[in-house]
Fold this protein.
Amino acid sequence: MHAGTRSPPTPLRTQGAGSSYKKSGVVPGEPPDHALGRSRGGLTTKVHALSDASCTPVLALLTAGQAGDNPMLAPLVQALTQSGHDLDFRLLADKAYSHPSTRTYLRKRRIKHTIPERSDQIAYRKSKGSKGGRPPAFDAEAYKLRNTVERSFNRFKQWRGLATRYDKYAVTYLGGVLLGLIVLTHRAKT
């Protein structure tokens, strides 16, 4: 017999957490920042969504918490057109989307929109006098229906896993958001 130490053979894993992921740690479709960003409340993720008049979310995208709302409107509208929806609707958005580039983008695509002007934009336009141009059209009666977006987010937040993100990966969280979207759409149709 030989004296010495010998380690027992390591068993092959066929089940459990270590067997399903590759060692590279790269998840397909995962953004590099995992859609996590610093905001006032700490690490957060923003859900950008479009809702219809019946408070049913139609489409959702994720970004990091510090990302602005305005740059996400174009990808939402593009995703809506790619999914086959008709663009014959009126887009209602809050002041976060009040930017000349947003209004130009919507006009080029012939999308009717109601977006209030921010107070700093009003002050800047008035400071230029007659060269400041006329204010953008705003339909106050149509804007009263904008709360449908907030009501659809409140329906999302009934699920604890969506209200507070517990998922490590953004693609997993987006899957939960899309599952919630499917359930809410199904409930609205029945």
Q: What stands out?
A: Residues 33-189 form one domain.
